[in-house]
Amino acid sequence: MQSHFIGGAQRTVRDLPIQHREVVRNGGERPLDMNGSYAVGQMYAMEYRLARPRSPLPVLLWHGGGMTGAQWESTPDGRQGWLWRLLEAGHDVVVCDAVERGRAGWAMFPEIYAEAPVFRSAEEAWQLFRIGHATPSGVDLGLGEPFAGQRFPHEHFCALVRQMVPRWLGHEAMAMAAYDALLEQFGPCVVMGHSQGGGFAAHAASRKPHLVRAVVGVEPTGMPVVQEGQQGADAFTPASAIPHLAVWGDHFAHSPQWQKYRAQTDVYWQLLRRLGGRAEVLDLPAAGITGNSHFCMLDTNGDEVLGRVLAWLERLGR
């Protein structure tokens, strides 16, 4: 096991007033000068290497928006997460905290980041993650009536809320640059991305096709945008040589927003197929696996879902 801080650049802050603050409890005031140089745009990665891996390709786990790599490590109700299951299956694994999330840290604003972060409330998460029906504001951290057959351990929803972190909008280029640096260090690899991380995984296949051997998008969002005309489509020909799998859960009828996100991914998957690529879909309800939320890796049947993904990778020889 080894931790890494990857990518980033130096930024300098000047002309801030010197403050006089108590920095250490009971230590009295001292001058606090925050002018100087800072590392900005780095990401954090935790590497897990097996003594005898059965696959030559590490799996890189990329989290969703407003989350960190913790979502892969364990579930809200205390079960082992996909990190452990992938290690059991014989894969080396790298779990990431993207730029500005978790242990990657963030920078001051507006001196370095242009704006303040945005935050996700428990009420928004309950609906957006397709866990249950709308809840009156402030009621038990968003707990309300779960959808029938819900596989997310909704009794432990508060544990998921405690994982959520601030995020900054408009930082996609900075985040992708760090992911590029990650691929340069750990590729060739399999990239498994959830939600926003799934979108970054699709971009990675286009930007670094020589380092990505397969993409698994778990309810991915934010697909590459194709310019009009054949020339725009041809730009994605290298990515079409890489197998892609999209995994979708249940309860889409309750979320027009997720219907839109999914349709955008469908358009990109169709492009990859037109270019001769292998872009497949694991629609869990269509496969007889019902009730999954946006976080199928945290759902009570998460091991069954991962089993389907691992079987797909094995068929590819990855």
Task: Note down, in words, how this protein is organized.
The protein has 318 residues and is an alpha/beta fold. Helix content is 28%, strand content 19%. The chain has helices at residues 82-88, 122-128, 157-161, 172-186, 196-207, 230-234, 237-240, 256-274, 302-316, and strands at residues 2-6, 9-13, 19-22, 29-32, 36-40, 43-48, 59-62, 93-97, 189-194, 212-218, 244-248, 279-283. The strands form 3 sheets. An 8-stranded mixed beta sheet has the order 1-6-8-7-9-10-11-12, sandwiched between helices. The longest helix is centred in the C-terminal third of the chain and has 19 residues, at 256-274. The two termini are 22 Å apart. The mean pLDDT is 93.
In short:
With 318 residues, this protein is of the alpha/beta class.
